[in-house]
Amino acid sequence: MSEDNFMVALGDAFRGLSxxxxxxxxxxxxxxxxxxxxxxxLTMLGIVFGVCSVIxxxxxxxxxxxxxxxxxxxxxxxxxxxxxxxxxxxxxxxxKGNQSFVLQYGITYADVKRIRATIPGVTVVLPGRNIRxxxxxxxxxxxxxxxxxxxxxxEMRNHRVAAGRFFTDNxxxxxxxxxVLGAEIAPALFPIDSPLGRHxxxxxxxxxxxxxxxxxxxxxxxxxxxxxxxxxxxxxxxxLETAKLRYGEVLMRRRxxxxxxxxxQLHEVTIKVETLENVLSVAEAIKEVLERNHKxxxxxxxxxxxxxxQAERTKQIFNIVLGSIAAISLLxxxxxxxxxxxxxxxxxxxxxxxxxxxxARRRDIIVQFLVETVILSGAGGALGVLLGVxxxxxxxxxxxxxTIITFWSPVLAFGISALVGIVFGIYPAxxxxxxxxxxxxxxx
Amino acid sequence: xxxxxxxxxxxxxxYQMGPVTVQAxxxxxxxxxxxDYISIxxxxxxxxxxxxxxLGCLDRPTSGHYRLxxxxxxxxxxxxxxxxxxxxxxxxxxxxxxxQQLTVVENIEIPLxxxxxxxxxxxxxxCRMAARVGLEQRLDHKPFELSGGQQQxxxxxRALVNEPLVILADEPTGNLDSASGxxxxxxxxxxxxxxxxxxxVTHDPGVGxxxxxxxxxxxxxxxxxxxx
Lengths: 444, 228
Fold this sequence. Notes:
The complex is a heterodimer of chains A (444) and B (228).
Chain A: H1 3-14, H2 19-35, H3 37-74, E1 79-84, E2 102-104, H4 109-118, E3 122-137, E4 140-149, H5 153-156, E5 161-164, H6 169-173, E6 178-181, H7 185-189, E7 199-202, E8 205-213, H8 221-224, H9 228-231, E9 235-239, H10 240-247, E10 250-255, E11 258-263, E12 268-273, H11 279-293, E13 299-302, H12 304-347, H13 349-357, H14 362-398, H15 408-433, H16 437-442
Parallel strand pairs in A: 2-11, 4-9, 6-8
Antiparallel strand pairs in A: 1-12, 1-13, 3-4, 3-7, 3-12, 5-8, 6-9, 7-8, 10-11
Chain B: E1 6-17, E2 20-32, E3 37-41, H1 48-55, E4 63-68, E5 71-72, H2 78-88, E6 89-92, H3 104-113, H4 119-132, H5 148-160, E7 166-170, H6 178-193, E8 198-201, H7 205-210, E9 213-218, E10 221-227
Parallel strand pairs in B: 3-8, 3-9, 6-7, 7-8
Antiparallel strand pairs in B: 1-2, 1-4, 4-5, 9-10
Helix pairs in contact in B: 3-4, 3-5, 4-5, 5-6
């Protein structure tokens, strides 16, 4: 070999890692991993489970929080919902000299008027009355909640009519006996034919069915707290004026041997705020107005926007917890890989010596072992991504839970697993490269 | 006379074994010319292995100079030494030192692998070398499927494939029965006849006698340098 050729060879050796070498190193790595298939597979498992559990858990969490957020959103993020609550210290009507045993509490028409008059930024107010009654169709009966409200209810609460129509101002003004059925009522009372145009009986009165609402998820039952029981009842919507006419303001309730009456003007008032930014300040103002006019805390204020924000915060915390679990499991997987690679380096000391004697630089040895580790963790990551994408589908199919796989979660999980390969591969690779070739060749 | 291929000039090697300083080579000077067939002999502990490691650029001398092909390699860094080993030296070991999971032809290719030769070219050269040592039928066999003699022939083919300046053989017949040993030695004779430069380290006098020149080492110094 001429002098020039040798210099070229030297120059080549000094040049950085070439693509050809990398390609060969990958092929070599795959081969030597394939030689120890079981060991490689077991080593990979740590990463596989780490990655797949991250993706699956994130997907399930994302799905759950999406459902919660959706149901909060149906309340309307610009809305503030006031509910009447029976004050706890007056659960029983006091019998000490009170002229009437009618318990009076809750939000009044005067409250609504006051809120409308004094607080700017309030656009629409939606009052509602709840009356618990049996609804009949001939001999079929259902325990329902009569909900007296106004014609703009569907629009304000994002609750659309599925069939027929909602009642109009006209129905309201004339106090007509019309009703719109909640989605659950229609099939229960009218199992065969369409209820539209038919009549249902509530107490002594007949109401014509003019529409059916779309089904909706139970409105964030957990967040709505005390109202959970009530809102889980199917609702029958009637005009507010009709409700006033039929029921007045005093509700009678008979229990075993006792008789109870309560006077509640409005059970529920939904207030729509003009702009999203003002929701919280308006809520604050409403709180003040109500506090000034109610001696007891016989009302509740739900702010869907705040619930939404809370749900988002919860989700963030959930993600942080998941992230730490993922980090720990990937760390464990990485340590497993490092352990095996260290063993592999020791086992292959002789090979390292041979390669060094035949012209491999330290760098070549580093690349050889690092590539193996990265292949291991990369393949583990890929397998984990695959499993992590399949599991949510299985879960949503088997358990009926909603799952959402966001684009970034597999990307992130895979990226981290590859990074783990590099981080935990570097030490064994350097150990291999630092071996003295003479010692390595002598190694048995 | 042309410049020597190997030039050792007062080369010393000392090892620090804990508190004890071991002088493995105490100033060795010799030259090897192209086409030489040399055996290095001596009792164990005389510094043979140390000399071989230095000749093979696996180690650096403590002092003195080693010029290989006119270039001083005694103070080169690790990467440069690796390049020198890959491009200018061929190794044959006592225990063959083939990589078990690779096939015959892949083992022969290793030195070329680290020189970034195109794959097709490497493969062709490896096949040619395998044919030269009479193993063209065994290209895709694994080392454990071959006899000791065959394995050593693979190792020789591997030592030849990068067309080295010098072939270093460390007890090449030490693990072989006499028949295969003779076969391997015949191969070395052939290589010598083709003009290769061979350095054999051995303590088998029968093997040592085949070389045309014998360096005898004792206690880290050259005891005798006999040409035949």
